[in-house]
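Q: Please design a sequence for this.
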């Protein structure tokens, strides 16, 4: 990566920034007795050593550490990581690495997950930097690639159209080409086309799945790097896949935030968008956070998003709604699954969105709905939402929602009812970004960055200060919440200046909750729109806008 190229190419410049930033962390981090940095996840040793090695051999980067010492340190960690591979043919998980390494990495049991993404990224790193490695490391990489290929871990059919199969498909293409295996390569081609056809016609079953969406992006970007220049059909299919993925990302993008529903969200994605390195390289319109919970290969692999996707992601001067459909895939059920409907409302200052339907997801890690704020460099959460705690929930981890929620989404307003039966947890949990908040017995009014929020609750609440957000606890179910967001700019246009003036203006519009004989809420939004949400029975509801039922007629894949 030449200095002139980096200076003139904003993507390369941001990738170089990541390489240096991560290399500095790696160089300063003490090694454990095992010769590794990490025992929690074997992949982190490979990622950080990759960045340290890349920085050490790049003469255009100004680094504060000794290049030869850093290169040797990186080589040692890479070699130690490679040696943890199971290299015994015929044994369980042959060709695989352990995931967790405690207490003794050399005795750790192989696990099926690391090789899925790490195997392909190792192939890329070996190809790009192999000639600069010492002999022992180069031979170890050659040997590891052979064992990965012979392990056949990727020889699986496409069934669920999820991130595991996406990585299998990419690995078929990479290792099929690397080892001149035409049968494997053709299998990869067909799986790629099958996957692309499915997600184009039915949507991604893993909607907003974080961090796994980035495994899709990295796997297929890596496969494109390996694609034979003469194989125009394969290159075209891979570019179509990557164009699709970045268009999907762009619709829910707001300055580093991932807006709307997530089928899965890890603690570094909920209640704050922290795993943002790929977004930073691609869009670069926000300040990079100090935390880097998943480095992976954002500093090495890059595919430029289509111009249409970049315009969608970066231009929010005019508010826009996205109304999308998708279908889940349940291998045990041959019948076609009900369609899911996802909504997002995007502005320059904030966004709101979620999934209308509730569906069971892996590990119950989904986020049903949220307001999102752009990443501004402010510390802490950038998401605001409420939920009824469900399976897997524990205090201090505001994820794992129950199925008891009915919703209404309309532009800058979210309404939710919680028909919680007797015997279930008798509370709601809310997450507020840190800002200026004013309290009333059943309402909260706040300003965070350039947005005012009005939150109306059916029952009294208590607040708890958490490290990165403010937690709201609402006792007494069934109940509900109504939230409206208004930008400071729009408020000024209405003659409202300051949070106190906003409270005075919107307090007159407090919604009407009914929680005794029925469960419903009526609300007149700031712009005069009449909104109503009624819970019926059997976990169903009706949502109304100005006396007309909400319809999914204008939702599409």
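A: Design:
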């Amino acid at each position: 990566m030449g200095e002139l190229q980096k200076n003139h190419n904003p993507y390369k410049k941001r990738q170089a920034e990541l390489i240096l930033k991560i290399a500095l962390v790696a160089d300063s981090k003490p090694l454990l007795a095992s010769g590794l940095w990490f025992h929690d996840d074997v992949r982190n040793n490979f990622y950080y050593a990759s960045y340290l090695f890349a920085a050490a051999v790049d003469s255009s980067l100004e680094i504060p550490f000794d290049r030869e010492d850093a290169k040797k340190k990186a080589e040692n960690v890479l070699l130690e990581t490679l040696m943890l591979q199971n290299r015994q043919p015929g044994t369980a998980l042959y060709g695989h690495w352990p995931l967790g390494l405690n207490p003794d990495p050399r005795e750790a049991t192989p696990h099926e997950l690391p090789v899925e993404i790490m195997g392909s990224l190792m192939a890329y790193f070996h190809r790009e930097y192999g000639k600069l490695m010492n002999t022992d490391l180069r031979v170890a990489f050659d040997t590891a690639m052979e064992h990965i290929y012979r392990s056949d871990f990727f020889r699986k059919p496409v069934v669920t159209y999820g991130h595991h199969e996406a990585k299998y498909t990419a690995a078929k293409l990479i290792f099929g080409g690397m080892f001149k295996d035409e049968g494997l390569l053709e299998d990869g081609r067909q799986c790629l086309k099958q996957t692309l056809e499915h997600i184009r016609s039915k949507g991604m079953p893993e909607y907003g799945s974080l961090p796994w969406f980035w495994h899709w992006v990295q796997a297929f970007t890596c496969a494109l790097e390996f694609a034979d220049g003469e194989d125009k059909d394969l290159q075209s299919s891979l570019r179509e896949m990557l164009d699709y993925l970045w268009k999907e990302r762009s619709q829910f993008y707001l300055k580093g935030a991932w807006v709307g529903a997530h089928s899965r969200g890890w603690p570094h994605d909920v209640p704050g968008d922290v795993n943002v390195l790929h977004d930073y390289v691609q869009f670069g319109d926000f300040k990079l956070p100090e935390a880097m919970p998943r480095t992976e290969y954002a500093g090495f692999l890059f595919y430029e998003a289509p111009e249409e996707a970049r315009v969608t992601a970066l231009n929010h001067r005019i508010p826009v709604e996205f109304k999308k459909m998708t279908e889940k895939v349940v291998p045990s059920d041959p019948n076609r699954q009900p369609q899911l409907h996802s909504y997002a409302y995007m502005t320059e200052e904030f966004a709101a969105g979620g999934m209308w339907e509730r569906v069971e997801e892996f590990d119950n890690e989904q986020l049903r709905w949220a307001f999102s704020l752009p990443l501004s460099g402010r510390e802490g959460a950038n998401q605001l939402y409420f939920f009824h705690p469900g399976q897997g929930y524990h205090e201090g981890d505001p994820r794992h929602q129950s199925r008891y929620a009915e919703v209404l989404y309309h532009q800058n307003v979210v309404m939710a009812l919680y028909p919680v039966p007797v015997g279930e947890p008798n509370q709601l949990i809310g997450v507020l970004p840190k800002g200026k908040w004013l309290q009333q017995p059943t309402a909260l009014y706040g300003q965070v960055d350039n947005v005012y929020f009005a939150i109306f609750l059916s029952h009294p609440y208590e607040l708890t200060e958490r490290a990165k957000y403010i937690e709201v606890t609402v006792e007494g179910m069934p109940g509900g919440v109504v939230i409206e967001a208004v930008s400071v700019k729009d408020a000024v246009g209405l003659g409202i200046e300051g949070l106190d003036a906003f409270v005075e203006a919107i307090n007159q519009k407090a919604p009407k909750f009914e929680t005794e004989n029925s469960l419903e809420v009526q609300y007149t939004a700031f712009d005069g729109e009449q909104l109503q949400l009624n819970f019926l029975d059997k976990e169903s509801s009706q949502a109304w806008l100005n006396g007309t039922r909400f319809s999914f007629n204008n939702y599409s894949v």
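Q: Thanks. Anything notable?
A: The chain is about 35% helix and 20% strand. The chain has a mean pLDDT of 96.
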